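It is worth pausing here to work through a concrete case rather than discussing structure prediction in the abstract. The textbook approach is simple: state the sequence, then state the predicted structure, then interpret. We follow exactly that order.
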Amino acid sequence: MVSSKTTKRKPATKNLVIVESPAKAKTIEKYLGKNYKVLASKGHIRDLPKSRMGVDIEHNYEPTYISIRGKGETIKELKKAAKNSQNVYLAADPDREGEAIAWHVSHILGLNLDDKNRVVFNEITKDAVKEAFKHPRNVNMNLVNAQQARRVLDRLVGYSISPILWQKVKKGLSAGRVQSIALKLVIEREKDIQKFEPQEYWTIFGHFQADKNKKSIFEAAFYGIAGKKKPLSSNDDVQAVLQQINKRKKFDITKVVKKERKRYPAAPFTTSSLQQEANRRLNYKTRKTMMLAQQLYEGINLGGRQGSVGLITYMRTDSTRIASVAKHEASKFISSEYGEEYAATKIHKSKNPEGAQDAHEAIRPTSVMRTPDSLKKVLTRDQYRLYKLIWARFVASEMTPAIMDTMKVTLEQNQVQFQANGSKIKFEGFLKVYQDDKKIKDNLLPDLNEGQKVKLLDTKPEQHFTQPPARFTEASLVKNLEENGVGRPSTYSPTIDTIQRRYYVKLNGRSFEPTELGEIVDNLIEKYFPDIVNIDFTAHLEDELDGIELGKEKWTQVVDEYYQPFSKELKNADEKIEKLQIKDEPAGMDCDICGAPMVIKLGRYGKFYACSRFPDCRNTKPIIKEIGVQCPKCHQGQVVERKSKKRRIFYGCSRYPDCDFVDWNKPINRLCPKDGHYLVEKKVKGGRQVICPNGDYQEEVQK
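Step two, the predicted structure:
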């Protein structure tokens, strides 16, 4: 009798948890303990193929997913770990994208979709993670299908229009639903600026004195005649008002209105408002803001027993809702730190943006007790600044309103009326922690009463002109997209990044300007694909994607309703768009290698000089902008405008590398009156200022 040996399989002892990022994996594994192994998928592991459409239009828009190139080792590791585990949990981020990742991982590993193995949490703290694992659920196919519909639609649009743009305009171009709207907004704003005609208007300010004390001097602005507001559109209007004033006669105070005004704090951050405020206050690009927020969410090593801890809640949200536990903790902190009178007793009603999914809380610190100052040593400078902004905004949202004493005074003489407004902070309230606009200062008026007479000391007429609408910054573009219901929190950052990388727009300072290439692409899309740049149409599509998530719409039906009219536009565009020739401009100089004329070409990052004999001669040069200032170091070259690798403007000598002069600020043709050093023009809040880089000399801000 032959005996056969059977090898016993080692029993599976660990539960496997799969998340997206290694940083998140490390934090969660520490919380769950030795019976859990946490691995990262490092984002998506399956997607539509890059080399082809990957969507079968003839068979109900069936997508073809393949493993992403470069993810082979990751997939192999996940399969091996899953095989040796008792249970597999999918703990990707709690949004559509995260649900789709969980679904793709489930498919790759051959998991049963009926299994309750999907775990979600809004913050990466020990209590939140452990509680989430008590309530696993199925993969939510409504969420998956909402994401799948967006992905398929974007693929149908991008992979259909882009080849037409390559063929008719230039290789390397692309078009998409949200990016086309963003580009159009920038271009429409530029058109508004170009056609804007400034209108002249005037103001008159007067200085008045209530008594002999100099402290009783105050300023008031001209309001109108005989109780009716009168606009001043010319100097003649101003002179008519001034002639009506009797300089020997005092003004009567005809009305004094004193009120107590409350100012309420802003709601805690959503993704959109965080991107806007970080751009305004910290000058962070949306991409940087989201990268830092991701780091704070996934976990920062605080050292000691604490180890890695998630410092903020999930950063992709359109809700301003706050959990009651967090509210209670904030109330205790505010009462002990600032006083009970600062802690809000009534719930502030903050309205969610229209169309908000309200799937998650607002962005807040996971514990208000972790103050920014207590974390300063373990955070990078950028992480600290963003965390401080999030922490302060949340704490302020749970504080009492600020109380202002306001005073409005009307002065009259010969029917000419001036008005003065004063205010004083009576109680700081939330302003003790956070101010969402310009810093509020007391603007005090002397104690004035009705019937009192005051002396007019002087008048100051000023001419003004109306200003064109401002160009979009990243903050204002995000705000506009959100207000129009275009895109969702997760789409704003990649959208803005794409239109810059494609060179459809460029940053001038902090403002977006469209490029010639951007205008060409926008004109073509507007003419041949009007629905794509129709804001209402795109916003309606976002609503339908939300409907899929709620189980009210079928994803294939939504895609079909969009694609059928789009396919007709595609056919028409392919037949009617003529090939556009982006002509090279003569550069007015010869190639220093072969002597042929140089031309100005349009490349991926803008215009540059190139030899007209390309590709036989590959000589290229950047287009350098001289600013009309001699180099202050070598006194031979000219100061020119250059761009760093990160596209930031700086100034250097045209003789580089023979002369290494550089400055981030723009040098001017004047020397410092104190030490003879060259002066520079520096951008400051509200305008520009001339300063000396070598000392403390500075001039008034030029608005």
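Step three, interpretation. The two ends are 101 Å apart (CA to CA). The CA atoms of residues 296 and 319 lie 19 Å apart.
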